[in-house]
Amino acid sequence: METKQILQSSLLEILFDGKNKLYGAYDLRKTYNKRIATALLFMLALVVLLLIGSAVVNNFSKNETVAPVVSTPRTLQKIADKEPKVLPKLPAVAPTAALKVTTPRIVKDPLVLDPPQDVKQIENARIDDHTVEGPKAPGIINPPVEVAGTGIAAAPVTKRNTEDSTFIAVEIEASFPGGADGWQRYIKKAILSQLEDFSDADFGTCVVKFIVDKTGAVSDVHATTMKGTKLAEIAVNAIRKGPKWIPAQQNGRYVNAYRVQPVTLQNPNE
After folding, report:
1. Would you say residue 77 lies in a domain?
2. Where would you tag: which of 26, 53, 75, 247 has the fewest CB atoms within 10 A of its CB?
3. Which domain CATH number covers 233?
4. Using one digit for the tens of pLDDT, what is the confidence trace for 2-25?
5. C-alpha distances in Å from residue 34, one per residue of 6, 23, 40, 47
């Protein structure tokens, strides 16, 4: 800016000489006085409006009529004193006689013949396969047994000892002495001794069903599949004429049980 222009320019123009006047600071400084004046005029107008409003409210309050308060004379009367209620007397309670505390003693009951089992005996006990009824207590009547009939006449049921029953499913099945390997060697030897008599119809899987009693003896041996074949004949005879089996177990004791034993022989020509 030249010297002549400096004398004729304002401080704001000199301050922003050579700078970007489009930036907001230049416009804010240039319009500062105008914005201050506008704010003062707005505040002055607001004060005038408040004064006018206050004057109007005071004038309205002066013209409002107040309703007079009318008081009615009252006469006070003395309330007669009421006699206090007399509570009924409670009956006298006789003192309770003192009770003597008896020290308990543990003595042997002569009526108890069989002492209860201890914890160790209960832990080592096994579940029985039949129910044993205990002695009935005198003076106690058992509830009636509800019998639900089907309306169909049936043959009388004969009681059979549970120990002599033949189980179909047991905890431990009967097994051949020597286990599965012993059975394979035994049946293989029986089949190989008569293998020359086999035809194509004699190969397959024959299922043999039989009963193993508590002593290990077998009975009721019969083939359920491949009946009439050479394989069925050899399998049935091998079980019927073979050694005793290890009997099945139920609830920790030997029982009579069914045994199903498959015997498989593949055709070597296939």
Report:
1. no
2. 75
3. 3.30.2420
4. 566 665 566 666 666 666 666 667
5. 24, 19, 10, 20
